[in-house]
Amino acid sequence: MLLGNNTPNRQDTTPQVNEDWVVQLISNGQYAEAYLLLSKETSRKISSLYNLALCSYFAGKYEQTIYRLDEALSTFRPAPDSNPVEDDLYNAIVRVQNATDAYQTGITEKYVQRFPGITKDNILRLKIDAYLALERWNKVIETAALLKNKNYRNVEEALHVAEKYIV
User: Fold this and answer.
1) How confident is the model at residue 166 (pLDDT cuts 50, 70, 90)?
2) Whole-prediction pTM value?
3) CA distance 134 to 38
4) Which residues contact residue 146 at a Cβ distance below 8 angstroms, ignoring those fewer than 6 apart?
5) CA-CA-CA-CA torsion for 149, 141, 154, 19, nearest 10 degrees?
6) For residue 11, pLDDT beyond 60
7) What is the CB neighbour count within 10 angstroms for residue 11?
8) 95: left (phi over 0), alpha (psi -120 to 50) or beta
9) How many CB atoms lie within 10 A of CB 144?
10) pLDDT at 15 > cutoff 80
11) Burial code of 111-130, b = ≥16 C-beta within 10 A, e = fewer?
């Protein structure tokens, strides 16, 4: 309070969203808390949109998931990944990682900047999951074509299911 004034000094008390905290909350399965933080965010960063999409996906709101992912893709500026080392060990790790659900983990803007290609793939992989849940078989196939020959387990499984329904 200011001296001689009975009203509190009001400043912007909107908390700054700590991306690391959001990622931690999502990793802990605390999507509601992550959503509360993200919903106050006014900027439309790719990381925030992706993390909101994860929250929507967790809640079974697949249309909203796709909307957020499309919004993230629309702001995406292609840039090459800056991977200084791609050796046998790295390639072995990638093969194992591609068979996991690691793409369903929260991300930071620093991650987006450092790994733009992987980020874009993760956005498409989550979109495929949402299309699969909505039984939009043509969209599963169409989106999976963008990730051809990348050997992502979820993409291969979704294609297998979608192809059963497409004649």
Assistant:
1) confident
2) 0.87
3) 25
4) 124
5) 100
6) no
7) 6
8) alpha
9) 24
10) no
11) bbeebbebbbbbbbbbbbbb
